[in-house]
Amino acid sequence: MSFDLEKIGIDTEERYECIYTTIDEKGIKNSAAIGLKYFGKDNIGCRIFEGSKTLENIQKSKRYVVNITQDPIIFTKSTIDKLPSEYYTDDEDIAILKDAGSYIIVNVVDIEEQKPENTPIDNDQSIFLIKGKIESVTINDETIKAYNRGLSGLIECLVNFSRYCIVDDEKRAVYMERVIENERMIGRIGDTQTKEAMKIIKKEYEKN
Q1: Are 157 and 201 within 8 A, CB to CB?
Q2: Torsion over CA of 43, 46, 51 and 54, rounded to 10 degrees?
Q3: Which pLDDT belongs to residue 115?
Q4: Closest Cα to residue 14, out of 151, 122, 109?
C-alpha cells in the first residue's frame, strides 16, 4: 500500500523531527522527540537508543504513532519531562496527540540492534533500528508540515554570517566550526534546496 506523505511535508530519504507516542501494558502513555525516515510506499523507520521508554513500549507492543507537530512546548516537554495527559486524545488503547496536525500509525516489522560503532554518536549504548509499515495516516491540518532540522542549521549559519566579518578571530573560528557541523548535518538530513543553500553560504564564508 502507498501513502501520500507529501501533503504533510514528508519526502523519501530525508529525515524529520516528530513526536513519537506509545502506550504500555498499564495504559500509561509516553511521548518522545525522535527522527523519522520515510522510504516510500508504506515503509518507515527510526533509530532509538537503548534505555528509552519509547523503545521499551515499541518492543512490547510492536506499534507506535508518529505525530506531526511544530509545537515547541510539546517538543520540549517530550524531551525533558513527561507530557501531561491532557495533551493526548481519550483513546485508551493508543497514544495520539490531541492537537497533532497529522498522525501516522505504524506497525513494527523488524527491530535490529546496532552496536555503538555503527552509530553517529560516540557512546557505549546500543541503538535499535526500527522498521515499520504504515497502518494509516490521518491529516487534521495540511498546513502543519513535518519539521526538518536542516533548516534550523542553515538559519544559524545565515545569522552568524551577518556577524562574521565584524567579530574577532576567536569568534570567527567558532562560527566556522558551526558552519562545518551544520554542513555535515544538512548533508545527512536536509532537503535538496537546503543543501544547495548551504553550499552558497559556505562559499561566502570562505571568501571572508
Answers
A1: yes
A2: -60
A3: 72
A4: 151
